[in-house]
């Protein structure tokens, strides 16, 4: 099934070079794959996987190991943001 995977801020460096400008890729995933398995091939350091949203809804860290997606979902990830 197809989903859209988006990375923001410094995490865009983990996307394939041709996808970094748009910050997103279309993925064909196994419907039973949890979020943790979907992001694993991208090599994101766990400490940088801070804010995880599916269709704009926050997914708590403990649910990322079991939560699955459905066709057309958008999985978006932000690193920790610092500022003042």
Overview in brief:
With 84 residues, the chain is mainly beta. The protein is built from one helix and five strands.
Helix percentage range = under 10%
Percent strand: 25-35%
By CATH, the superfamily comes out as Beta-grasp domain
Q: Count of DSSP helices?
A: 1
| Average pLDDT | 95
The third-level CATH topology is: Ubiquitin-like (UB roll)
The helix-strand sequence is: EEHEEE
For the record, give the distance between the C-alpha atoms at the N and C termini, rounded to a whole number. Answer: 41 Å
Alpha-carbon Rg, integer = 12 Å
Main beta sheet, described? 5 strands, mixed
Tell me how many strands there are: 5
Low-confidence stretches: none
SSE arrangement:
Elements: E1 2-7, E2 24-28, H1 35-39, E3 51-54, E4 57-58, E5 74-78
Parallel strand pairs: 1-5
Antiparallel strand pairs: 1-2, 3-4, 3-5
């Amino acid at each position: 099934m197809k989903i859209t995977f988006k990375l923001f801020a410094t995490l865009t460096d983990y996307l394939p070079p041709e996808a970094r400008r748009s910050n997103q890729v279309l993925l064909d995933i196994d419907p039973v794959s949890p979020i943790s398995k979907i992001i694993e091939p991208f090599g994101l350091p766990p400490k940088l996987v801070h804010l995880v949203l599916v269709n704009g809804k926050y997914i708590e860290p403990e649910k990322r190991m079991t939560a699955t997606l459905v066709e057309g979902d958008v999985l978006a990830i932000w690193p920790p943001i610092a500022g003042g």
